[in-house]
Write a structure and sequence with these properties.
Blueprint: H1 9-12, E1 31-32, E2 41-47, E3 54-70, E4 77-78, E5 91-98, H2 107-117, E6 134-136, H3 152-160, E7 179-180, E8 190-191, E9 193-200, E10 206-213, E11 218-220, E12 227-229, H4 242-248, E13 262-267, H5 273-290, E14 291-292, E15 302-307, H6 317-338
Parallel strand pairs: 5-6, 13-15
Antiparallel strand pairs: 1-9, 2-3, 3-5, 3-15, 4-6, 7-8, 9-10, 10-13, 11-12, 11-14
Helix pairs in contact: 2-3, 5-6
């Protein structure tokens, strides 16, 4: 049915003559567990116990060339100007993704303290200065206690917990208070979360993604066109077709900047800052494929890139960018499938397909 577990024409592969075609097969690129498949990358979460919120830290042990691209209309960030190809500093030591709206940028201070204690950072006459860009998402209305948000202590704990093994997904870190499908109002939204994946090619190129999904729009599986989590039907039991909602022009005015999807792409390739920025730009294609609508005025959608340079040789930026988009789309779908319900926000596993 069109309004229920809605299926766009693309979802079932209907041609102009009404003949059904097979859904595209899964890609042949091997998949591994997380962004930390990239050597030198590790991930740490801290989830506050008092309400659903937290932060996630992506550490680059030996530094990594950084890039960023901001597409949403309501971003909350730190140190993004530093990543411009025109500016001096090349290497990034960590990226912080946090809940708590602008208050959550304080988590970055704890990560800087952690790195400072280890004498890691950009060399200056006064000692190393850690380079730690950050981005936040809005989750202050989740859990009823907006005064509780990630601070410097959370960032420090997340950095100290960073690991390359068994990176948790779902209701953790920056994804703890994330929700999706707010384009028809919060009463029909669902639980978002955090997801991660890595793609590995036969010649050893690795491109990984990690993302906290807190979107105005709904999450769609790009391979089928079917919604996975997002705007629910009026009875709350099924999913609306986000494509149909857009085409009917019935979307409500967006909440007051109360969304945002933020993430990091990492690769073992050797990139310049300009190339890293291009990869970040291309990776946003994956967000647009998996979130409908995306990059709205109420989303602060931001993607960082970390290139460790461990893999020698000239980089094929087009290939890396295409893989980044694929990895990000997959990580977004993983985020909502790994999520679990919280009061007022059912998860994808709770909705009958």
């Amino acid at each position: 049915m069109i309004g229920g577990v809605a299926i766009a024409a693309a979802a079932i592969g209907v041609t102009a003559r009404g003949r059904q075609t097979p859904v595209p097969a899964a890609p042949t690129v091997p998949r591994t567990s997380s962004i930390a498949t990239v050597p030198g990358i590790s991930v740490g979460h801290y989830t506050l116990p008092e309400r659903p919120t937290g932060c996630t830290v992506i550490l680059a042990a030996n530094g990594a060339t950084g890039g960023v691209d901001v597409r949403g209309g309501a971003p909350g960030t730190a140190e993004t100007d530093l990543l411009s190809p025109h500016n001096t500093v090349e290497k990034v030591n960590a990226i912080v993704l946090s809940g708590g709206s602008a208050f959550g940028l304080a988590a970055r201070d704890g990560v800087m303290k952690f790195l400072d204690e280890k004498k890691i950072g950009y060399a200056t006459g006064g000692g190393p200065v850690p380079i730690v860009p950050a981005a936040i998402l809005y989750d202050l209305t989740i859990g009823g206690r907006p005064e509780i948000r990630p601070g410097a202590d959370c960032g420090y704990r997340a950095a100290a917990a960073a690991t390359a093994a068994n990176v948790a997904e779902g209701n953790v870190g920056a994804g703890a208070g994330a929700t999706v499908g707010k384009s028809m109002g919060p009463g029909r939204a669902m639980k978002g979360g955090l997801g991660t994946i890595a793609l590995v090619t036969s010649d050893g190129l690795i491109v990984g993604a990690i993302v906290a999904v807190n979107a105005v729009g709904s999450v769609v599986d790009p391979r089928t066109g079917r919604p996975v989590a997002g705007v629910r039907t009026a009875d709350g039991r099924a999913l609306e077709d986000p494509f149909a909602l857009v085409r009917r022009g019935v979307l409500q005015r967006e909440p007051a900047r109360e969304a945002t999807t933020i993430g990091v792409i990492a690769t073992n390739a050797r990139l310049t800052k300009a190339q890293a920025q291009k990869v970040a730009e291309m990776a946003h294609d994956g967000m647009a494929r998996a979130i409908v609508p995306s990059h709205t005025p109420s989303d602060g959608d931001t993607l960082f890139v970390l290139a460790t340079g461990e893999r020698a040789g000239d980089a094929n930026v087009g290939t890396i960018g295409a893989l980044a988009a694929e990895a990000l789309a997959d990580a977004i779908v993983r985020a909502v499938r790994a999520a679990r319900s919280i009061p007022g926000f059912p998860a994808a596993v709770d909705i009958a397909k």
